[in-house]
Amino acid sequence: MHGPNAEKVLLESLLPNLFSSAQTKVAAIEASQRKTLSELQESAVQQQSTLADLISRLQTEHLLERERLESQIREISTARDELLGRVEQSAEDSKKRPRDDSTSAADTPSGSTIHFISFIFHFKSFNIQTESARTSLPEDRMAEFAEQLTLLSEMGFTDLEKNIRLLIQHRGNVDLVIEDQDLS
Questions:
Q1: With contact defined as beta carbons under 8 Å apart, do 182 and 166 qualify?
Q2: Is the Cα dihedral 67, 73, 74, 75 positive or negative?
Q3: Are 152 and 173 in contact (CB under 8 A)?
Q4: Would the CA dihedral through 151, 181, 52, 130 be positive or negative?
């Protein structure tokens, strides 16, 4: 039996098997894609949660550091005020005392000495405030690095604190962060 009818009969008998096979393959591919999508969504949620925890921890550390530095500034200011009070009192006392030959003008603090001491304390206070500004990490920097952090995590670099430190150090350059990761 050759001819158009035989080919038609053969095609009609093969078509259901081919169609069924194609449907099975499509279903398997769709199931695999759904599983992969689900895993990616879970990973994204986990990374987002980890980032939120890290942001919260950094904000807490920032507030504690700020409170510590403000306390130091208050202590320095108090010490400065006490020292200036002592210097002024000493100056007043030396004016009231009669001078003898053993006391020289160099033993008495002058106005310029008082101003110099005041300048030193103000300078120290300024340095502490400047250091605090340099070490702080505003939360908007975290959002800036979210894309780089996701990329690094997908590449297997999962130490978020190290990644953030390196991203800050390299101003967000992922290539330099990867080089540093490979060196350590």
A1: no
A2: positive
A3: no
A4: negative
**Contact 152/174 with Cβ under 8 angstroms?**
yes
> 56-59 — which CB contacts under 8 Å span 24+ positions?
58/137, 58/139, 58/142, 59/139
Give per-residue pLDDT as tens, 64-119: 888 888 888 888 888 878 877 777 787 777 777 665 555 454 444 555 555 555 55
pLDDT of 128-174, one tens digit each?
544 444 444 545 566 778 888 889 889 998 888 888 888 889 999 99
Cα–Cα distance for residue pair 77/92, rounded to 1 Å: 22
Mean pLDDT of 2-15: 78
Distance CA 116, CA 87 (A): 12
The Cα–Cα gap between 25 and 27 comes to 5
